[in-house]
Structure formats: C-alpha cells, structure tokens
C-alpha cells in the first residue's frame, strides 16, 4: 500500500529525479485536506455497523429469495458471512479513502474476490446492490446529510456544518472506491 507521500517518492525515484514543484504542491494539498479526509473516514467508520446492516437488509428486501431455504443468506451462518463480507469491503474502502490510494483495496480485498464468490456460489448481483447502497450511505455521511426520515431518533450527525463543495472531492473519491468494488464483482 502506498500513501500519497510514498507514491510521490517512488515515482520520483523511478525517474531518478527529485520531487518536482507540482509533486510538492500535490502533497501540500493532501496535507491541507487531511482533517476533512479524517472526518470523512470517521463519518463512515462511526456508522459502519448500521451502514452494513442496512445495505444487506436493503439487498434482501429487493430479493426475498436470499433468506428463503436454499438462498444465499439462509441459514444464519450465511447471513453472518454476508454481513462480515460487507463490513470487510466497507473497511477497505475507508482504508483507501484514508490513504488516498486504492492499492490496499485492490491488493487485500478485491484481488480474486469475484472468483471466490463464483466458487462459493455467491450471487454477485446481490453483492453489487449492497455495495451500491453503502456507496449512497457513505456519500450522505461524508456530506453529513443522513436521512432523518428513516433514522428518526437514532440519527447520528457528525455535528460539523459542511458545505457541499468542501466535501465534493471526498465524496467523489469514496464513490470511486465503491465503483472499483462494483467493477471487480461485475
């Protein structure tokens, strides 16, 4: 896994040159947005349990056969495996968002995932749907705009007043990591 700093050094070293002014400005920008990046990761991590259970519940609501006898979320141990896998995917997305680099997601989560699911008979369309739900939830939490209509008294906001444009780049980056997961499963 390479973070933004390591990636810049490795790139400069490969071309046998010092870091350029553009590289240094890019790193300055990465440091400047560090607190917003940490806030975004914290928003996802603080709500991870609910995000995972809601995504899997949403997936099941759209395909009731998953919890019927013979379905991929039946019996309880298969449901637990489904919840575990969704949590692992979400965790690696947050690692990638924190580092600003998708290599940890690619190397430790997505490498061989589709083949493993195919061998186990896991329906990737259902998994993709759960990831799509988590992607939407992550965007809402990063922007600090979770739905009050569904959460009710259990609504948890991070408390900061965040404008859309300040978080747009982080939402786009997080979305790109979820899109990588979807592409790897499709």
State the total count of DSSP E strands: 0
Segments where pLDDT lies below 50 for 5+ residues? Answer: none
Strand content: under 5%
Q: What is the number of helical segments per DSSP (H or I, 4+ residues)?
A: 10
Distance between the termini: 24 Å
Can you characterise this structure?
With 186 residues, this protein is an all-alpha fold. The chain has two domains: 1-32; 34-185, Phycocyanins (Globin-like, Orthogonal Bundle). Helices cover 73% and strands 0% of the residues.
List keywords for this structure.
single chain; 186 residues; Globin-like; 2 domains; 10 helices
Topology, element by element:
Layout (H helix, E strand, L loop, with lengths): L3 H11 L6 H12 L1 H13 L1 H15 L13 H24 L3 H8 L2 H8 L3 H19 L5 H4 L12 H22 L1
Provide a brief overview of the structure.
With 186 residues, this protein is an all-alpha fold.
């Amino acid at each position: 896994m390479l973070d933004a700093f390591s990636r810049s050094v490795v790139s400069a070293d490969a071309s046998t040159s010092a870091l350029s002014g553009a590289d240094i400005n890019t790193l300055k920008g990465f440091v400047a947005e560090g607190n917003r990046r940490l806030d975004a990761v914290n928003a996802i991590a603080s709500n991870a349990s609910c995000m995972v259970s809601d995504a899997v519940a949403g997936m099941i609501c759209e395909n009731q056969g998953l919890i019927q006898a013979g379905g991929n979320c039946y019996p309880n141990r298969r449901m637990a495996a489904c919840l575990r896998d969704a949590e692992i995917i979400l965790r690696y997305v947050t690692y990638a968002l924190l580092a600003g680099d998708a290599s940890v997601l690619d190397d430790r989560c997505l490498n061989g995932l589709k083949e493993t699911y195919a061998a186990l008979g896991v329906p990737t369309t259902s998994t993709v749907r759960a990831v799509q739900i988590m992607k939407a939830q992550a965007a809402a939490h990063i922007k600090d705009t979770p739905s009050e209509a569904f959460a009710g008294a259990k609504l948890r906001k991070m408390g900061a007043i965040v404008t859309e444009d300040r978080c747009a780049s982080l939402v786009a980056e997080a979305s790109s990591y979820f899109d990588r997961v979807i592409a790897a499963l499709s």
